[in-house]
Description:
By secondary structure, the protein is of the alpha/beta class. The two termini are 19 Å apart. 38% of the residues lie in helices and 16% in strands.
Amino acid sequence: MLIGVPKEIKNHEYRVGLTPTSVRELVANGHQVLAEQSCGAGIGCDDDVYRQAGAEVVPSAKEIFERSDMIVKVKEPQAVERAMLREGQILFTYLHLAADEPQTTDLIKSGAVCIAYETVTSPRGGLPLLAPMSKVAGRMSIQAGAFCLEQPHGGMGMLLGGVPGVDPAKVVIVGAGVVGTHAAHIAVGQGADTWVIDRNPDVLESHWQQFGRTTNSVFSTKDALEKHVIEADLVIGGVLIPGAAAPKLITADMVKRMKPGSVIVDVAIDQGGCAETSKATTHAEPTYVVDDVVHYCVANMPGGVPRTSTFALNNVTLPHVLTLANKGYQQALKDDEHLRNGLNVHKGVITIEEVAEVFGLEYQPAEDVL
Length: 370
C-alpha cells in the first residue's frame, strides 16, 4: 500500500502522523511511504531522516493526496485538505466529528473511508488511541492553568501551590478519566488543593485507591458541581462521551459566579467543550475572558509538545496502520471489531450513531457498509 504523511497545517500544530521509526516498520512490511517535505520538522526529524527510513520525500500535500492509498495524519483534515480527498481513499487520524458539522459534510461528500483514532476501542475497554493525547493534555492543562492564574496573563495572581503560610489554589477537575487522572498527578505534584468530580462510583473508587488523601473526590451532582466550580481558582474540564459532543456541565451562570481572575481550562473543547462559555482557541491566541474568568480552550493542546505527543501517539497507532496496510481496510475492519469502531464515515455514509444523531443524518452500522 502507498501511505502518505502530509505536513500538519492547523494553527501551531507541529505533530506528524508517522515518525521515521514507523516509516521504517511500514517499509519493512513491503509498503511505500510518501512524506511531505518538512513534515517532521516539529519533532526534530528532518527530511534526510525520513529518507533514511525509506520514505520518498515529496514537495507538496497535493502530491501526497493524489498518490496515496491511505493518508495518516494527526489532526482533523482542514478544508483545503478535505477538498483533496478522493473516493475510496483511507483517512486515518483524529476527527472529532460531533463538534464539527462542516468537516462531517465534507467527508461525506468526499467518498473517502474515514477512520478516527478517538473512537477505536480496546478489548479491555477505553479508547487506546485517544489515551496518549489525553494523558498529555491532562498534564498540560495544569501547566496552562497555572500560567493563566498569573496576573500578567489575566489571572488573579495566584501561585498554584502557594507557599508556607499562604493557601494553595483550589483546583477542581471535572471528570476522573484519563485527562482528569493525569491532571490530578500534576496538580498534586505542584501542591494544589485538588478536587476531582465524577459521577461513576467505580471511577471515584479507583481514583481514591490511586491518590488516597492527596486529592478530594466528590460524587457529581448539580449541587456539588455548582459549589466546587464557584469556589475554584482553576477548573479543568475533562469529561468525554466517546464519539459524541461533550455535555455542557459548567453553565454560564456558574461562570458568572466564579471568582474574578479564576481560570477554566476546557480540555473537552475538541468535542465542543464542557462549559457553556467555551469556544475553541489556538496556541496563537489561547485565551479569552468571560465574566472576568479566563478561558483556555486550545483545541490541539498536545501540539504544543509535538515531540512527546508524536512518539506517544505512534506507539499506539502504528500497529493499526500496519494492519490496515497489510490486510486492506475492509478485511482489517471485518477482523477487528475494535478497529471497526473507529470507522466514522464510509463512502458517503455516517457509521457512528452519535454523530448521525447530532446532525440529523442517515446512519448505517459499520458491519452493514462493509
